[in-house]
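We include this case.
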Amino acid sequence: MNRDSILNSRRLSILAFSFSFAYLLSFLFEGQVLYSLLDLLEVNSSTYILAAMILHFLGLLTCGLYVKTQVVAKNVMVAGMGICLIATIPFFFDPSFLWLLGLIISGYTSGCAVASWGFFLKAFTPKNERIKSCADVLIYSNILMIVVNVVAMNRSPLIGLILSMLCLLVGIVFTWMLPVDQEKDQDKAALNKTQGSIKNSLILLCLFVFIITINSGLMYQVINPAFDHLTGLVSWYWAVPYIVALAIMRNLPTKAKRSRILYIGMAMIMGAFISFMLLKRKTSDYILVDTLMLGACGIYDLFWWSILGEMLDYSEKPAQTFGIGLSANVFGVLCGGVLGMTIRSIGLPSAELAVIALSVVCVTLVMLPPLNRQLVLLLKSHAYLAAYDNMSQSQQTHIVSQVKTLDPLTVREQDVLQLILSGKSNREIANALFISENTVKTHARSIFSKYDVSSRAELISTLLKNQTLG
């Protein structure tokens, strides 16, 4: 593809994901359309919400086991959203077992569809732009969600349901238009499995995401019910601070100290629960609490979404990597929600509920600083490619010469190493050196062996961890 084709494909993939994700946010995943329908018919929501979340978690977690090419990813996205469309139809009729069955089916298939988008995020967005693509899909999908929520909460849940299904239908159309590269799929299917630091880093990231998103589950079950009387305001203001935070983070300069903003996010979460405990339940109180909590959610969501986006370059299974990362988010929300429902069922006053919630937040915050330090180191190792590319030739040579190999590199291996550190793919290296890709892979395996590493990421980290750019 040329640059214009890739840019158009990127826009198309963002639109496809944004519209389909808007359905998920407004209906399936603790969506206000579903809540409004359940409240209208006086149906207990806990069973339905938990069923949808558990199956969505399983869909995200297992999708990568069978979605291994762009072609399959596109088919799964289209089929998954089509199944969701059909499974939502029973909600136009009286409650029955079809409601629960529909949520179970759509929960799983939507999880698979979301995870599959990892292929298109990787294929159509350069790695240094993925934070912007992730911000765009989160911003657009939340704006669409606000429109659907306003209609569902202030006019009619059924009209809101129609709008959420319309978003899904538009998402299907845009997904159907996405191009796929079958030849590229075949090349990637032949690559060796990524091992070592990427798997360990993904586990670390999932732990981070799980801990921070427990707060989101508590928010749904502790804070939101206390402001049910502000239906009009909640319907449109709910996600506004989230969108504003995403827009700010998206447009920060590349050199901005984002790690400092993470600590601001921590303070905002604590401030939200403290404010909830001390303030009343007036309009101004809701605006303060929601601004602090949802603003922090925007900061953290874009932070770990963008890390997942960077990780896709080091994974041959984008759907698996993307799905596992997002499943940690769903699992955190699920656990936080169950905890919130449990402490609410005891019948404690709202102030005591807030104290319990704040205690949980404090425990998670104690764990976040060391996790954050390790993630910063991880991100630095992923940013080494760009750092290396900006060095002079003498600096590059100095960096490589600092680390001793088990056996000396051949002249050809040195050429391959330079191109690996410049971020070139096996195909690009083969074209640059006029050799076959299999020969490139042979040289790469030999280089890994001589440096006693198992992957490109580990090689880059080993070579550049003590770098000084001078």
About this structure: The CA atoms of residues 162 and 330 lie 25 Å apart. The first helix runs from residue 3 to 28. Residues 185-196, 380-387 have pLDDT under 50 and may be disordered. The domain at 388-464 is CATH 1.10.10.10 (Arc Repressor Mutant, subunit A).
